[in-house]
Fold this protein.
Amino acid sequence: MSDDILVVENLKKHFPITQGIVFRKQVAAVKAVDGVSFTVRRGETLGVVGESGCGKSTMARCVMRLLDPTGGRVDFDGRDITRLSRPDMRPIRREMMMIFQDPYASLNPRKRVGFTVGEALEIHRAGSPTAIKRRVEELLEVVGLNPEHYNRFPHEFSGGQRQRIGIARALAVNPKLIVCDEPVSALDVSVQAQILNLLKDLQRDFGLTYVFIAHDLNVVRYISDRVMVMYLGKMAEFANGKELYAAPKHPYTGALLSAVPIPDPKLGRARKQIVLEGDVPNPINPPSGCVFHPRCPRFHEGVCDVEDPPEFGFGDGHVAKCYYPLERWPMTVEEIERRPAERRDAAVASAQP
Amino acid sequence: MTTAEPLLDVRDLRTAFLTDDGVVGAVDGVSFSLAAGKTLGIVGESGCGKSVTNLTIMGLNPKTARVSGQALFRGEDLLLASPRRLREIRGNEIAMIFQDPMTSLNPVHRIGAQLVEAVLLHHDVSHAEAKSRALESLKEVGIPQAARRIDDYPHQFSGGMRQRVMIAMALINDPDVLIADEPTTALDVTTQAQIVALIASLQKEHGTAVVMITHDLGVVAEIADEIVVMYAARVVERAPVDDLFGRPRHPYTWGLLGSLPRLEADVERLVQIPGQPPSLLAPPRGCRFNPRCAYAFKRCREEDPQLRPVTGADEHLQACFLDEDTKEREAARTLAQVTA
């Protein structure tokens, strides 16, 4: 068995934009995910961060084969699942489950909790009805609910409790991989802490692997072993969690980190924020070269807007797609804008360990 | 704070709603004051009454609300003001920004027309003059190519840009007080940073006092002068910003600070506040936080704690029966845990 449970190579998902009623022809495409590669190790948590519209959820749905990728390859547990048929996917589906953002929208309001949690067990014929019921009650207890909640409806629960139900449903079939798509974004801080701690405990107890998608860098830091930063359908930076926060290389990561409000007035006042200008560009017509260049404080004309930077290595699996990576961290805006003249080239990068 | 006459002085504000299930005490004895040019942060989780507090001040509650207390704006009690007088004040002397800029802008009118309306409602000026003010304020909040975009509809703007339009509309009549109700919650973090920086700089320029309502302790840490922490319709702690983060004195505040994942520190395990906020239909007896509080003792379950000053710090108020030594120790422990 290889160490990597999930290997994603050059994954692409383009949504066509069509015109015409009878003869639909494609006029453009939204490049929601445009060439993303990464691996997830068994038992780790890979955090994926980025702002809305950066393609992180689409990427997750492609990995889960809830959407069919336009290009690239997804290997799950040593097997290429990119082109598997529906019947062939079925046994694999019970090994990868998903937890969704909105616990109000992701539970069927007309089904009792016991049914919702046990449905996957029934679909995969995991035992007799009494065995399934016992298992569901056990699951409810594992996620911190009362087994007597079996016959209740979702509206009888608070947001945090509903998210626990979603987690119990994902755990039901003993998956190897759980993709969590913004699981705590809709929750209050005190409840968020409960759910994050629960996810950590479950990972320890059941040896789970998580892909954890969030826009909140604080949350990702707390739960992730390694982190991928996405921008406009592409990977910007990939690093071990600690390193990404201590020594970010991509100017976008730097801007993200400096934009997070710090709940400590002294630290907050002491630091210099990099405030990015403008908005995320339109993915139908992404900028040429590096997609971040129109907002980048280190933009070099003739380089960044011409060539898409390759992945440069910084040792220990840390890669960033930037010709002018940050030299250190933290940096002030002035230091960042004092752009280095030397551009980083592939030859230099590969000389690094 | 004590020297200047407060611009907005809220005293023992109570709001209750009559529902089919009973009386919901959404705000229960909230007091605070705000001086000109200062920023007050109101922090709490969903349902703690932070938004209702401000809707009550502005007279925007539904008819089922029963209100008592005082909300003095320059000495005038807004709770007793006539609807006509309130309309004069709203959008002119006190302006509001809401969480979701898509639902608070009218989707079928051009933003220019909406801004012009805000000016004409309160000022006897020509349409052309109002339009030029609208353009001016759009430029001030950093809308690129404002002259062209003034004739766009709200859906043509991104979330961050819409929130800028809302801020332009709120500030167009140069209000004395700006109430911002979760202005950045729906926005991405880089956009949030832009909006917070914008509010802070406009505030400095115009000397506006700001009430910032949020669930995010990080946002208020950066811009507030004083912070009010609310739990289950009551104020549990109120302090200048450095005191609140440096010497928090209420177990709920410790829980909030401890349950935040940090960007700047490795946290092994987040502090968990067990359970969930109580129903306001039947709040617990005594201190409302006692069922979730790790330090609760007999008195907490029987007696209502009153908001009173911390020894040696008159501006730092808290409502907890624990003795000072325990608080000193526990606050230090929580802070050590989260900022290691």
Observations:
- The longest strand of chain A covers residues 25-41.
